[in-house]
Structures are given as C-alpha cells and as structure tokens.
Design a protein that fits this description.
- The protein is mainly alpha-helical.
- The protein has one domain: Transmembrane di-heme cytochromes, Chain C (Fumarate Reductase Cytochrome B subunit).
- About 65% of the residues lie in helices and about 5% in strands.
- The protein has a two-stranded antiparallel sheet.
- β1 and β2 form a beta hairpin.
- The longest helix has about 35 residues.
- The structure holds protoporphyrin IX containing FE (HEM).
- Protoporphyrin IX containing FE binds next to α1, α2, α3 and α4.
C-alpha cells in the first residue's frame, strides 16, 4: 500500500502491474477457450489453439502464484469509510471467489491434460509430458470442473467490471482510479 500526494491510500506499482497483466491473460484465456472448442476436431488449427491455450494457461498460473505471493507481502489499501458495510463485504467475498477461480482454472485444465496423451507443448519450445495415463473419465470430470468454474469466472468478471464503473460514474470515490497505472 502507498499513500499518494493527496493523502489517499492506493495500490503499489507491483500490485497494479499484476492486476492488469493477469486480467489481460484471463480474458484472453476465456476467449481462446470458448473459441478453440468450436474448431473442428482433428484439424491442425484445433491442435494449434489448444496448445496456445495450454501454454498461456501455464504462464498465467505462474503469474497468479507470483501475484498471490506479492499480495501476501503487500496488503491492499483500505476501502473508503463512505462505502456501506454490505458493499465492503460483497467486494471482499467476490474478490476471494475471483482468486479461487483463477487458481482452480489453470489447476483443473493442467490436471485434465495429465490424463490425455498430449501433455503441454509449451509454445513449441519444450514438452511437459503427461504424468498420468490416458483416462477419458478423469479427463471429462476435470474438464467439467474447468467448464463450471469458467462460467462462474465469466459472471464474476462481468460483476467486477460493473462494480468498477459504479465507483467511477456513480460513487466517484476514486476506487476505480487507484487501480490505474500512473495514477
Ligand atoms: C486462467 C486460466 C484458464 C482459463 C481462464 C481457461 C478458460 C477456459 C475456457 C473458458 C474453456 C472452454 C470451456 C468450455 O467450453 O467448457 C477452456 C477449455 C479448455 N482448457 Fe482452459 N483455461 C485456463 C487454463 C488452462 C490450462 C492451464 C490448461 C492446460 C494446461 C487448459 C486446458 C483446457 C482444455 C484442454 C480445454 C478444452 C476442453 C475440451 O473441450 O476438451 N486451460 N478453458
């Protein structure tokens, strides 16, 4: 947490960088995940997009771990006292579930690929071979978790963006601005 020139507590540069990098990666992963599953099975395009999704997903997982480590060392700034108690509670709960989703998404996706013959071909640079043997039932189960949490994540991202714009346009309490770079 940092205090700016107006005496308002705000996010550190590291927290802001992690927020936007992870946000861009998660949005890309949602779009890619939804798109690639519609590409015809057996086509080279499908293999390309699946590998891209897995590679960016593994990278996202590493950044999420780094972000959690950073957050543990740099607690977020306080919310303004003008905010009603229920809104503070709602923001804490929704942020906790958002973190849960961005942990479970790569974990379930990566675990599922352990039960295929493919593993992860990391950006074509090296292969992370599957640890398990091919098992369609376990794969479908883990991908079921991946799909359900993806739906929850999409709903929460929409709520998160709407809440951010409420702070910007209705509450005008600078909560929106304090997550912007170069504030
Ligand atoms: C933040 C990280 C991630 C997000 C947001 C994400 C998102 C998604 C979404 C939205 C889908 C489509 C789900 C559906 O239509 O049911 C999907 C499918 C998939 N994801 Fe991910 N994913 C992430 C990480 C990963 C990782 C790390 C891997 C593997 C290393 C992975 C492997 C897969 C696979 C194989 C599918 C296709 C499932 C199938 O149809 O068989 N994902 N992902």
């Amino acid at each position: 947490m940092e205090i700016n020139r107006s005496g308002i507590s705000c996010y550190t540069t590291g927290a802001i960088a992690f927020h936007w990098i992870v946000a861009i990666l998660v949005l890309t992963m949602i779009g890619l995940g939804l798109y690639m599953t519609s590409v015809p099975k057996g086509s080279p395009d499908r293999a390309f997009y699946f590998n891209l999704h897995k590679s960016i997903g593994v990278t996202t997982a590493l950044l999420v771990i780094a972000r959690l480590w950073w957050r543990a060392k740099n607690p977020p700034p306080e919310l303004p006292s003008s905010m009603p108690g229920w809104e503070i509670q709602a923001s804490k709960i929704s942020h906790a579930i958002l973190y849960m989703c961005i942990i479970v998404m790569p974990l379930s996706g990566f675990s599922a690929t352990q039960f295929t013959k493919y593993g992860v071909n990391y950006f074509g640079l090296f292969k992370i071979p599957p640890m398990g043997s091919e098992n369609k039932i376990v794969y479908d189960l883990l991908q079921g978790v991946h799909g359900v949490i993806a739906t929850l994540l999409i709903a929460l991202v929409v709520i998160h963006i709407l809440a951010a714009f409420k702070h910007l346009l209705i509450d005008r309490d600078r909560i929106f601005q304090r997550m912007l770079p170069g504030k």
